[in-house]
Amino acid sequence: MILKKTLLALTVVGLMVGCGSQNTDNTNQSTDGPETTAIKDTTAAQQQGVIQFEESAFDFGQVKEGDVVEHIFKFKNTGTAPVILSQVSASCGCTTPDFTKEPVLPGKMGEIKVSFNSLGQVGTQQKIITVSSNAENRVTTVQIKGVVEK
Question: Where is the signal peptide (predicted)?
């Protein structure tokens, strides 16, 4: 009985290996040679957007508790492909970002508007805004900082 199961298993494996190699020979034929594929890959890699902020930090100075501080971070796409911001998040619930939703074409500007609500945030503040995108610099940050007085 064990001999029959072993023979059956070997037969199945032999058929699978035989069929697999036969399909590989027929389905992986391409009109492009290795040189053409390498050129296509290199060209695609060179086509990327790049986010370049006008400023990476904004100091709002001193404000009274309860004041709302707003600032717009502007950036330029200095790359060769459109940049799409996929997510913009703040390090604290007191800070709310709003950002350009449409693709930012090469050479064009986009922006991230940040609102900081200082209610309950007395003292020195530093809030980090994390920007995720399809750009060459996939994740980057900007920050707002200042002092909230009671």
Answer: 1-24
